[in-house]
Design a protein that fits this description.
5-stranded antiparallel β-sheet; 5 helices
Length: 433
């Protein structure tokens, strides 16, 4: 299968039926920063290195930096490491530039478990912003650290944290295609779970609203077929295996239906199918290619890509069908639409001057801004809190995952080693275990 550059050439002809990836290891690297970030000190928790499998605070810091909202303050020059609020030398930490400080400790308790306690303190007001206690086994360092980072994020921003949410993507190693799921903060080959392995391409993974199922397209039967797979049990079923091509699954917000693209009548058109199977119902009617559907959060409309007026542009229409309204008017190539959880912003890919850039469009004003700068980017999707956008990019001949803040001011690279990654999709808050 082709790389991202070739993929976009294929999209010019047939927007969806190409996809790939590769086994890789990823590390978080900050490659851009905003001007106004919350300055926070996360000091080492007492006994975290001796009582936990992994130290908690490096994970918490990495999570908070990934969000693009926080700037870490180095307090190593301050002699004492506070464990309780009474230990904090407030003037010194403020002089170091911190606005808040996270402190904590790890204590041994019965049954081979540990109790992790933490507090987040506002340095100006000397007030506790949030706190928590977790009794766990020592091997659950990362889970606890991500939860603490989520609590800190919510206390500072008022928005729910995303550090325990998941991402799905496709990897390719040699001739093997792998559908993998991992936490957004732990997306690497050591911690990701392989959901499906195949000698044939796997493309277009899509999360169910409750995070329990994945819909995706597999070519294992030598044609594109849409499958739905239960992540807990591994059981799966074909929900769109009709004559011709079956592709581009997108879940309705209530999880009862999938929008899919079928070629049963010749050219690609959008249909609705029950997630338990059954006859499809056609909702788009054009002489061109209609593809890449995505629902609005309230489930009343579908955004999609069509070349009905020439080149690929983004349209919207009622789920019940009817006339479609064109949404993108700048540029002659706009694909891969996704709507933010609050329904206010559209992200998509635009080709301009030979580059394929991630864009964000305000659906009220129509204002558009670029979120990426490199040449070849694809498949943007929103974080479940709507504050970041995930996408794949071709960097140095390799596919790399990026996450950027919605204003484009801060960008994080999830660096890929020894391979490529493609078709990423950020999962919902729901995270069944």
């Amino acid at each position: 299968m082709p790389g991202i550059r070739t993929l976009f050439k294929l999209l010019l002809i047939y927007f969806l039926l190409a996809g790939q990836s590769a086994r890789a290891e990823m590390t978080i690297e900050i490659v851009g920063g905003g001007a106004s970030k919350h300055a926070i000190a996360v000091v080492p928790f007492k006994d975290e290195t001796t009582r936990m499998r992994e130290a908690l605070t490096p994970i918490i810091r990495s999570d908070l930096e990934l969000s693009g909202v926080f700037r870490m303050v180095d307090g190593s020059a301050i002699a004492n490491v506070p464990v309780e609020p009474v230990d904090i030398r407030y003037p010194l930490w403020q002089a170091a530039g911190a606005q808040s400080i996270a402190i904590g400790k790890v204590e041994a308790v019965a049954g081979g478990q540990v109790k992790v306690s933490f507090r987040l303190m506002d340095l100006a007001q000397k007030k506790q912003l949030t706190s928590g206690e977790f009794t766990v086994t020592p091997d659950r360092s990362r889970e606890v650290a991500h939860t603490i980072a989520d609590m800190i994020y919510e206390a500072i921003t008022g928005q729910k944290g995303i550090f325990n949410t998941r991402v799905v993507y496709v990897l390719k190693s040699g001739r093997n295609y792998m559908l993998q799921v991992g936490l957004i903060t732990d997306v690497d080959s050591n911690r990701a779970q392989t959901i499906l392995r195949s000698k044939e391409p796997i493309i277009s993974p899509s999360w169910s609203p409750d995070g329990r199922y994945l819909a995706y397209v597999s070519f294992e039967s030598k044609k594109p077929v849409v499958w739905v797979q239960d992540l807990a049990t591994g059981q799966r079923r074909a929900v769109a295996n009709f004559k011709g091509s079956n592709s581009a699954p997108a879940w309705s917000p209530d999880g009862s239906k999938l929008a899919v693209v079928l070629t049963t009548t010749g050219n690609s058109q959008i249909y609705l199918v029950n997630t338990l199977g059954g006859a499809p119902r056609r909702i788009s009617y054009s002489d061109g290619i209609d593809t890449e559907p995505t629902f609005t959060p309230d489930g009343s409309q579908i955004y999609f890509v069509s070349d009905r007026t020439g080149g690929p542009q983004i349209y919207r229409m009622a789920v019940s069908g009817g006339a479609a309204q064109r949404v993108t008017w700048q540029g002659n190539y706009n694909v891969s639409p996704r709507v933010s959880p609050d329904g206010r912003t559209l992200t998509f890919i635009r080709r301009e001057s030979g580059r394929f850039r991630v864009m964000a469009q305000d659906l009220t004003t129509g204002d558009v801004r670029a979120l990426s700068d490199s040449g070849y980017n694809e498949r943007p999707s929103f974080a479940p809190n709507g504050r970041m956008v995930l996408y794949a990019s071709d960097t140095g001949g390799k596919s790399v995952l990026y996450a950027t803040t919605l204003d484009g001011s801060s960008k994080v690279r999830l660096a890929v080693i020894n391979g490529e990654v493609q078709d990423p999709s950020w999962g919902p808050f729901n995270n069944p275990q």
